[in-house]
Amino acid sequence: MTSTTPRKKLTTSAMIASFADPGQRTTSAPFGHALNRLAEQRPEIVGLSADLAKYTDMHVFRDAHPDRFFQMGMAEQSLLGTAAGLAEVGLVPFASTYSVFATRRAYDFLCLDIAEPNLNVNVVGALPGLTTGYGPSHQATEDLAILRGCPNLTIVDPCDSVDIEQAVPALADAPGPTYLRLLRGAVPTVLDEYDYRFELGKAAELRTGRDVVLVSTGLMTMRALQAAARLEADHVDVAVLHVPTIKPLDTEAILAAARTDRLLVTCENHTVIGGLAESVAATLAFNGVGTRVVPIALPDEFLAAGALPTLHDRYGLSTDAVVARVKAELGDGDAGRRRPAAPPAVMPADPAPATA
Amino acid sequence: MTSLTTPQAAPAAGDRAERIERIRQAAYRVRRNALDMGEVQGQGYIGQALGVADVLATVYTDQLRYRPEDPHWPDRDRFLLSIGHYAIALYAALAEAGTIPLEELETYGSDDSRLPMSAMASYTPGVEISGGSLGHGLPVATGMALGLRHQGNGARVFNLLSDGELDEGSTWEAALACAHHGLDNVTAIVDVNALQADGPTAGVLRTEPVTDKWRAFGWHALRVDGNDVAALVDAFDELRAHRGSPSVLICDTRIGCGVPLLEGREKAHFMRVEAHEWQTARTQLEEGLAR
In chain B, N or C: fewer CB atoms in 10 Å? Predict the structure, then answer.
């Protein structure tokens, strides 16, 4: 083999690599600053973390309000139980850790201590879905699937810093428990360019389009907007319906979006099982709407470690991948007309048996 | 505020012998209440209820600040039952305390009753948390104690655990947190009846030496015979005066205590009592009080 200059491989880098594109506008630690602004108005706001204040932007609150921050150590069951106790005596806690720990490790405590008594505890989970290259131990690819079945719980998957800044006071105002899929660090700022305000439980149509509607949540709304702009250049008219609240779902907006002859594609930073795609599909089926749902989501598998851009490309979350998927569904050069269903790339029709 | 609403807010004020006798009488009624409820179902966690009756009688008659007619009074001491299956014992104590009407006990475990088999806060006045999934009480107590201290509220937080519950890792997470945050408004009570669902604690998962473990975690720990009212009173008084770290009272109790018929019974974790035995049990209980 003749030698050429080897291409430099991307590396995993930090645990929490920013998923902002090079040159993209970002806002630093929007959650921590939003919590600080809220805390100045509401003395009952308190914060706690499980040895991850620095990695969940909670350190911004901790440094501004040290007497209202409680360090619980690396003990997530205790974190959520303690948050429940704080709420029981009338405080409004925001408890932060990584999503994997809040859901997989401490679910019983979220469910029974927080959700069952319907307490105003706000659980803040960083690294939702595929936002770290550290592999399955840190990738909360099924957090929505775990939590959607939990009664009383409100679930929010914000797109960007604007969403987070507006969601924080809304979550505190909501009387019951909430779970926020946190984007932290240098968070892209996108939605300020649109006529948008976060409203708990409401979807927002960020752009209209006649050929395709992308129903998206979380950071995938950013990708959906980018993909829509790219497809516009190819004369494909793409609408984007942003669904920041996963539960309760804005079923009216979803049904309205589906009751057209557009191609309906869901986009989420989560496994194809139990997240937005299935929520939308269930909404349509329960209402007798037969529109096909094309799911752009993570596959039902434990994901690889590596650099985030590589992984987003590999697993279909990059803007390129979204554009390619939509084009494939429409059929090349056949914009605006739907083709018969191709099997979804991410979900095998006949999963391999577990004992293979 | 009447003396009923804040029984023994300053326990030292009462004569010790008088206090002990009052608790002994209360413990008798708690046991009788538990037997009455047990008879409704014919089986259940009767053995544990009889075993822990002296502890609950001491707490509710002598230690806890509360208003039976206002279970959400913000300044109340909190009593958290993490062992939800001890509901029968807690209801027996809450009836004695006046928080729930005595005549309601006969609805125990029935459809639409406020007294379900496993205690839940949303069902029953005076029940602070929904226990049952073990290892939740102490973490929630930690939050309540942190919050009350933050608010400048002097109320105390009690958490009744079982020795089996010491198997749960979350109990020890919270034990670390209480000690780390210096929560001297927390009092844990561990009912060591040495029995779990699958058999004796020593065979299921050894938890001894229990006292040493709590001390190693930074707690002020005492261990007493949990069926000796005088010892309980002295221990609770000492714990109340302690400052700077959380306290734990480890109580060795006897399953079925107060009813000889049930004390030595096999399969005591979820005890079956025959229909004709309930009256015998009540008679034995009464004889014990007279002694």
Answer: C
Task: Please give the ipTM for the structure prediction.
Answer: 0.93
What's the domain count of chain A? 2
Does the residue A6 lie in any domain? no
H-run or E-run covering A62: helix A58-64
pLDDT tens per residue across span A250-269: 999 999 999 999 999 999 99
Q: Which residues of A touch B140 (CB under 8 A)?
A: 81-82, 84-85, 88, 113
B177 vs A contacts (CB less than 8 Å): 72-73, 75, 78, 82
Whole domain around residue B167: which residue ranges? Answer: 16-290
Is the pLDDT reported for residue A332 higher than 60? no
Within this chain, do residues A174 and A62 fall inside the same structural domain, yes or no? yes
Residue environment code for A118-152, b if the CB has 16+ CB neighbours within 10 A, otherwise e: ebbbbbbbbbbbbbbbbeeebbbbbbbbbbbebeb
Same domain for A160 and A217, yes or no, is: no
Q: What is the pLDDT of residue A17?
A: 65
List the domain range (segments joined by +) for residue A93: 26-188
**Residue B42: per-residue pLDDT:** 86
Quick check: A73 and B176 CB within 8 A?
Answer: yes
Residues A182, A60 share a domain = yes
- Same domain as A316, residue A262: yes
The percent of residues in chain A predicted with pLDDT above 70, rounded, is: 89
